[in-house]
Design brief:
7-stranded mixed β-sheet, 27% helix, globular, alpha/beta, 177 residues
Amino acid sequence: MRIISGLMKGRIFKSPAGRRTHPMSEKARGAIFNVLGDIQGLSLLDPYAGSGAIAFEALSRGASNVTAIDSNKKAYYTIKSSAEDLGVTEDRMQIVLKNCKVWSDSNPDKMFDIIICDPPYDDIRPDIIRLLSKHLNSKGIFILSYPNSEEPLEIDNLKVLQTNNYGGNQLIFYKSS
């Protein structure tokens, strides 16, 4: 896998072995960051980090700091290894080995400018996605990668800005209502 744009453009990072994670395609990642535009100095939460692709892309494009969460040990150690290879420091990227709900419950006051949720499609938990949305700053953007076969998820206090389809998934962009 590679970083699409920014300071680390073209740099390669690892993806966890096995079928547990489904790294977001370069096309979908590119679409997200094209819609977001300039993210210089913004904070980002990547709660289903997998390979860390979203987190690394955000840092490459100027995000001030990123929190990458995954409950899978292989994913966690893969992200840590890639961060080390890319020279990403702990003050810019916090890598967390926890379940999203446990992390959220332990960090109720932690807020972000951008949250990008790309949950495993075989175990989508709308309750957890809604819980994670509580960590969005009042002027922030919440993005959800969701199966095309489903209607966009309704999330309290957020309104859908746009929906883009990519293969079997849709990217839903939300903003505070």
